[in-house]
Every structure is written in C-alpha cells, then in structure tokens.
Amino acid sequence: MPANLTISxxxxxxxxxxxxxxxxxxxxxxxxxxxxxxxxxxxxxxxxTTNYFIVSLAVADLLLAVLVLPLFVYTEFQDGVxxxxxxxxxxxxxxxxxxxxxxxxxxxxxxxxxxxAVSVPLAYNRKHVDQRQIVLLSxxxxxxxxxxxxxxxxxxxxxxRDHSECKLEDNNYVVYSSVCSFFVPCPIMLLLYFGxxxxxxxxxxxxxxxxxxxxxxxxxxxxxxASLQPLSGLPPLSSLPPPLPPVxxxxxxxxxxxxxxxxxxxxxxxxxxxxxxxxxxTSYKQDQNQNRQRKRTKINRRERKAMKVLPVVVGAFLFCxxxxxxxxxxxxxxxxxxxxxSVASIVTWLGYVNSALNPVIYTVFNTEFRKxxxxxxxxxxxxx
Length: 384
Prior knowledge:
The protein is mostly helical. The protein has helices at residues 2-10, 16-42, 49-77, 86-119, 131-152, 171-183, 185-232, 257-261, 284-333, 341-365, 367-376, 380-383.
C-alpha cells in the first residue's frame, strides 16, 4: 500500500523535457541506423567485411531504440517512477544489458577484424564473409545474450523488491555485467588499435626505406649510363627509362601517405597498361613477389582509410559509456556512497546518445557512406 501511495505522489511530476528529448533521440537513432543498413545493402562499394560488422552494430542500436528506449523514456517522463508490470521491467533490463553489451562486443569484433586485415592482408578476404568473420559476428551476439541471461533466469527477483523502481537489483551482477560488457573488452580493443597503428607506421617507414633504396639505385644507373654513353655508343639518354616520379625529388621524411600512394604502386588487378622501368624479369618468382608486394600496398592503403573512421567510433563509445559504467559500478560497490539520481539519469542518457552518433560519424569520416547519404536523401521527398 505505501508503494502505491509513492507511485501516485510521483506521477504528478511529469518530465516533459525528457519526453521531448527521448522522442527526438529515438527518431534520430532509427533514421540514422536504417540509413547505414540501407547503404550497405544498396551500394556495391560498401559491401565489405568491415561494413558488415558496422551493420551488426547498427542493428544493435536499432533494437535499442525500438525495444529499450520507449520504456526508458516513459519512465523518465514519470520522474523515474516505474508504474508497469515487473515482468516487463525484467524484460527491459535483459534487453538493455544485452544490446549495450552487443554494441561494445561488435566494436571489439571490428577491432579484431581490422587487426587481422592489417597483420595478414594477403590472407584477408575483404569482399566476402568467411568462416572466421561468421564466428566473430555470432560470438558478439551469443556472448551478449549470455551476459544478460541471469536477468532472464530471475536474478532480479529479490525479497522486498521496490515495484516503483526498475533497475538491476543484485549488486554483484551489476559488477559482473560491467566487467564483462565494458572493463574487459575495452582494454583489448584499445590494445588492438594501438597495435594496428604501430604496425601501419612501421610498414610506412619500411616502404619509405625501400623507396629510398630504389631511388638511389635508379640515380646511379642513370649517372653511369650518362657517363659511359660517349665511349660505348649506348643509345641516347632520351631512350632511357622516364625520370623518377616527383615524389622522389622530395625529402622522404616529408612525404605524406597520400603522396606516397599516388600511382607509384599500380593496382595489380587493374586492366590498364602500367608504365614501368624496362628491366628484364629474372624469374617468375620475382614477378610474383612484386605482384604480392603491390597487392599488399593496395590493401594497406585501404586499411588506413578504414582506420580513419573506426577509432572515432570507438572514442565516441568510450566517451558516452565510460561515465555510465563507472557510476553504476560505484553504486554497486559502495552502497554508502551518495550518488544523486540525476547523475545516474544523465550518464544513462549519455550512453544512449551514442546510438545516434555512429551514423553521424560515418557520414563525416567515410567517403562511401557520405556519397550514398547525399544520393539517397534527396530521393525521399519523391518517394513520399
């Protein structure tokens, strides 16, 4: 009976700003992530392995907007008071834990996939999902469900439960889910990205050193040919290989990655004729090694472009979700600590805002997504 009185006294304090903001947030999350899924489905250039992981992340955000946020917004509108069935509350907590965990596990899977692509690019299948990637995608959702399953099996059914609140009741489970969902995967993810950046930097330095060695060899050859021409009757210098690319005239320490990539290593898959130095190939194996090197160059260039957007996604996730997990873990470990309800509400909102940020990040940092959005959005009025 006192619980009913508490509910009736609280329902008069409606939080209209939370209702308006929540509805706008749900619309933005649904529209943005639907666009991400549509872009990968419709645009051939976006049908890559990395983007399939991004679609999995977008699906988690979509489900969060459809299954979790409406009930959360309704509760915030009622000033944090839960007035619905407790079975529905347990379902809400299960979906909340599972989908937040699925989001960070998808980001972790992306970092593992990117690490493999950078470490062994020639063995990496970019266009088609192979068995390893299927395992990664399946594991993200199965493990997320496993983390959330204790709520499904009744861990929230504690004696003297307050029916005016919808929350995780077991503090030990709060700590366990926070560790599994956030505090273990995040360091792994950051270490993998650090390893990727370090590997790409080492590859860049090795490539510059190789270019410097080739430059010196070409210069020596041209100087020797010029000095011997009057004595040996060699063909004129005009018949020698073309001059070195403009990038070689610069100090290699000042060369940018974009300058280093501009047509100096041709695409081995391109049908166009390639202008190369006319030196005889000593063996088939040497030619094969050159093709492998060019393919590796092409793949690493592609990976650097992909790496521009993924660290931003990870950084946004950490910025949005770290306060949530820190605050709720502190509340579980320190029952005497007074953490205002407004702080818990703000960090929860901040976490959900992350689901709306990812499509914006893709639009700003990924050229292919940006092209599709610009092409697709103007057609919507015609469809309506």
